[in-house]
Design goal:
about 375 residues, about 30% helix, about 25% strand, globular
Length: about 375
């Protein structure tokens, strides 16, 4: 006698057979989506406000868009019963964190106006310890390649800029102490007719006359004991007011402290970064002149400290022809995932061109080239 056929579904229910592989994946996707969303919420609340969140802030900004997209893809692969929940949670994380992703969506539709004949060409660049040679007054920092000083100056001249905002006009000794650089004679030879302003480790070169120059002081509470160069720690922006035609324009050349100091992440480092950004913001708010602000902020789009940049300043990124602009680290092309160099302008300044300039091994940062003018 033939045995009756058994219902496989009924057998699974009655014998307690393991659930399907898709069903086993459901909790993992949901847990991952919920965990990431919690991280994004915490990031929005804590980033830039508490020092101990500096570690999570170092995540590549692109993750705030890529992770939710991957979670959405995973949600589509699980059982229908969990798909909506997982997808909804992933979408919430994308909405909450998308602004920190560094995606330059405006580049898809923004078209800058043609530059007028009297437009100003600006070049901003972190030079990576200026032209510090391998053999010289001090050993170069670890990882610094042999420097071709002639190539360094050729690179600067090749930008054909009217205003150059240069950071890390400094050498570092074997003990990681900053050493002042005095390269003014060579700068005058390389850029005849240019006006030169310096403060701390910033130097600004200009074809236009300098009306005012000053370093923006953040206070001496963040100077390490025994420092022989206090301004290096307290002055992280050089303001230079230039006479351009019949107008005066302020150019802010900034190099804000890195979140990672010699001893790693610390509250003191966070406080110093915040103090220098607040000092910069206070000067901009009190300045009625049209202004350009550019430099190395050591802050990615995912870092809340950028909230301290005054609302008066507008990011020039829409003029970039890049959906995901990144300026660091040029030494590792596949890991060049961070935009930490920024350019801002006040509403009186029109941005006609903005592009990133590769450093060809001369620095770990890309340069920023802008063509701007006073709005008509």
């Amino acid at each position: 006698m033939t045995a009756p056929l058994r219902d496989p579904a009924r057998q699974t229910r009655t014998t307690g057979a393991p659930p399907s592989r898709a069903r086993r994946r459901v909790p993992l996707v949901l847990c991952a989506a919920v965990a990431w969303t919690v991280f994004v919420v915490l990031h929005r609340v804590l980033s830039g406000r508490v020092w101990w969140w500096q570690g999570p802030e170092l995540v590549p900004p692109l993750a705030f868009a890529a992770v939710p997209v991957l979670l959405l893809a995973a949600a589509l692969a699980v059982a229908r019963r969990a798909r909506r929940t997982a997808a909804a949670v992933a979408l919430v994380s994308l909405i909450l964190g998308g602004g920190a992703s560094g995606l330059n969506l405006a580049s898809l539709w923004h078209r800058a106006a043609p530059a007028p004949p009297d437009a100003i060409k600006v070049f901003s660049w972190n030079t990576w310890y200026w032209d510090q040679p391998v053999s010289g007054m001090a050993p170069p920092p670890a990882g610094t390649p042999p420097r071709d000083v002639a190539a360094f100056y050729r690179h600067l001249r090749a930008q054909d800029a009217d205003v150059l905002l240069l950071q890390e006009y400094v050498y570092f000794g074997a003990d990681s102490r900053p050493i002042r650089v005095n390269d003014l004679d060579r700068l005058r030879r390389e850029f005849p007719g240019f006006h030169i302003a310096t403060a701390s480790e910033m130097v600004t070169l200009s074809r236009f006359p300098v009306v005012l120059e000053r370093g923006i002081e953040a206070g001496d509470s963040h100077v390490p004991p025994g420092s022989g160069w206090p301004d290096f720690h307290t002055v992280k922006t050089l303001r230079t007011d230039l006479r351009v035609g019949g107008s005066t324009v302020s150019f802010y050349n900034s190099h804000i402290n890195s979140p990672v100091a010699t001893g790693g992440l610390s509250r003191a480092q966070h406080d110093a970064r915040e103090a220098n950004l607040r000092a910069l913001a206070a000067d901009i708010r009190a300045n009625p002149l049209p202004a350009v602000l550019a430099g190395d902020f050591n802050a990615s789009p995912a870092m809340g400290l950028l909230r301290l940049v005054p609302e008066r300043m507008t990011d020039a990124a829409p003029a970039l022809r890049s959906l995901y602009p990144a300026t660091w680290d040029e030494r590792r092309p596949l890991l060049s995932l961070w935009r930490i160099d920024w350019a801002y302008t006040t509403p009186e300044i029109a941005v006609h061109e903005y592009r990133l300039v590769r450093s060809d091994g001369l620095s770990d940062h890309s340069g920023q080239r802008l063509v701007v003018s006073l709005s008509r």
